[in-house]
Amino acid sequence: MKNEFPNYHKDIVIDGVSIAVGEQKQINLNIAKLPSRTSIDTPVFVYRSKNPGKTLLLIAGMHGDEVNGVEIIRQLIAKELVIPKRGTVIAIPLLNIYGFLNFSREVPDGKDINRSFPGSKEGSLASRVAHAFTNEILPHIDLGVDFHTGGGRINNFSQLRCLLAEGDNEEYARAFAPHFIINSKLRDKSLRNVAQQMGKSIMVYEGGESQRLNRAPVKEGMRGAVRLMHYLDMIDKEDIAKMRGAERVTEPIILERTSWMRAKFSGLFRSFVKNGSLIEEGQVIGSLTDPFGELHHDIICKQCCHVVAINHQAVVNQGDAIFHLGKTS
Question: Name one GO molecular function term (predicted).
């Protein structure tokens, strides 16, 4: 029988630290220092089975204010759900330590790490973080899930984004089994893009909103990670039962196109539909009003589509994104 993982028994080396098969280690990947000279280290948790298999990356906190992903991986680690029986799991609960400490999406220089890949050792702070990740982590993995939330007050319904035509992405996404799978193009200088260039598959899980711990998307993200590990033969069927609800799988809805509906007027915004719901052409899905009782504008959907995100901001400006809508074809 052909050995599918001929190099599995070689040590993984991250930031000069070797991890042999059968070992579990925490590596503190040094990124930079605060102005006070305090080191900023990104904890990397590596779990290696003695039995060969794929190497899965679970990463969150690339945007420091998106704490749902941090909580997903924190719980997976705390409940020992990331320990594989075959293969390796690399878990990074929080990449952007700077943003996390300052309730910010970006690092202190104002740049977005997820628009800075593959990065540079001599570049901006965001570029240096991306460079360290690209060179120390990505070479070791086969595939990964990058956990995010909506930005600002945007609440994303549980969804997985990937380029379905690329490699085994559709199989992996279906195994994760979120409510929505969105066929999403690659963006320049993103983690997904540089990983694809290296022959790695990265899918993005989106659930909830920034600076909030939203229970439902956290649980759904955990269930998806466990389902994916089972599909990759990293854990056995009985291990799925350790994550309540992971065994219950419904067929994901694949959305080929999405678009934003924007506020036609500035004012007070109210949504009349539930996130994740199917809405009909001509349905009134929300309203815009002024603070003085003089203006009332019904927001009418012009097509049959699914609601994949809603803006929870009560006061909006003209042109603000208020609904993210998706179509299956």
Answer: metal ion binding
